[in-house]
Every structure is written in structure tokens, then in C-alpha cells.
Amino acid sequence: MSAEEIADSYGDVADELARWSRLERLFAGRYRRRQFENAAGRVLDVACGTGRNFRYLTTATDVVGIDISDEMLAHARDELDGLALDGTLHRMDAQALAFPADSFDTVISSFATCTFPDPITALRELQRVCKPGGQLLFLEHSRSDVAPLAWLQDWRAESHYQTAGCQLNHEPLETVQKTELVIEKTDEQLFGLVTGIEATPP
């Protein structure tokens, strides 16, 4: 799917995703907190969606969120306002960020590399805007290391991608390893379904 097709897909479900935010927080909140609570300085949240990471950015001095869907960004704005958090939002394609190089101390992204049409290009853009000595933090769903779950993901992968623009059985660690990013730490949870990755610019 193209970036615009992805935008349309998520625009169609933005209201529904926002309605399920409390339930999603019960499931994924602990993983988001663990991965992002130490995101420091000026933080860029790539593919921020409805803003589900914002409440965990307690050490950030400035928050910038981008997403390709206007509808998702509208809910992200509500989240910022509800948290009384000072931040800015922009409609932007992760594969072509409109920020100068070395703009952010920390770049984060959650459950998003599976949706980028060209994830390598997107990750290199994230690397470009991260300052030397900064960090990139990813929280991704991944293909399980439990055979029955992996089989189910493989079986549903094509139809899920056609409807949601999400590669259900992708391997985020393999994707990051194809870039110049230096992987500092990885963490797998929930039978390998959730992967946390900490990386630094080369």
C-alpha cells in the first residue's frame, strides 16, 4: 500500500481506535511505559496515531508528534490537551521528514514500522533527525516465537495487510538490522509478540 492508502486506511478507523484507548492502555500501557518513560529532551513521536505514547513521556522537555492521517492527529491533539502537555503535531510522512538533521534528542515509534511502505527509508529518516549521542526507541509487534501463534499470524498476514495496511508477521529487529543504526538493547515480551528496541545513531 502507498503512504496515502495507509493514511486513508487509518483515517477510517481513527474514531474507533480512540474509543478503545482505555482498553488498549490496559494491554499495552506497561510496554509503552517501560520503553518510553526515559525518553529525554526534545522527543519526536513518529506515527503517533491517537497519541497513546504521550502520557508516558514524563521526562521529555518538548514533544513533537507526526502522523500521516489527519483524523489520527485530531485525536492526538485531544490527548495532548487532556494531559495538559505542551507539544506540537504535524501531518507528515515518516519516509520524508520535514525536519533538519540532528533535530531531536530522542526519536520514538510504536507499532508503526509494520505500516511503512518502505521501512528502511523511514528508519534512515528517523536516524537523520536524531542528534549524535541521542537515542531511538521502538516498540513493535512482531512474529511470535511460539509456533501456533506464528502460524496464525502468517495465515492472517495477507488479509490483515489488505484491510489495515499492517504487516502482522513482520520482524522489526531484522528491519532495524538492515540500517546503519546501532542496536543497544532488545527486549521481547508476550511470547515474542512485542519487541522493544533501543538504538543509537552510528
Short structural summary:
The chain has a single domain (3-200), classed as Rossmann fold, CATH 3.40.50.150. Helices cover 41% and strands 26% of the residues.
Descriptive overview:
It is a single chain. The radius of gyration is 16 Å and the shape is globular. It has 6 helices and 7 strands; from the N terminus they run ααββαββαβααββ. It has 202 residues and is of the alpha/beta class. The chain is 41% helix and 26% strand. It has a 7-stranded mixed β-sheet. Helix 1 (3-19) packs across helix 3. It holds the Pfam family Methyltransf_11. Residues 44-138 form the Methyltransferase type domain. One of its GO terms (biological process) is methylation. This is Class I SAM-dependent methyltransferase.
What is the topology?
Layout (H helix, E strand, L loop, with lengths): L2 H17 L1 H16 L4 E6 L13 E8 L2 H14 L3 E5 L12 E7 L8 H11 E12 L5 H18 L7 H6 L4 E8 L4 E7 L2
Parallel strand pairs: 1-2, 1-4, 2-3, 4-5
Antiparallel strand pairs: 5-7, 6-7
Give keywords.
202 residues, alpha/beta, Rossmann fold, seven-stranded mixed beta sheet, globular
Determine the CATH topology.
Answer: Rossmann fold
Instruction: Please state the second-level CATH architecture.
Output: 3-Layer(aba) Sandwich
The domain count comes to 1
Under CATH, the homologous superfamily reads Vaccinia Virus protein VP39
CATH class designation: Alpha Beta
Shape: globular
Quaternary structure of the protein: single chain
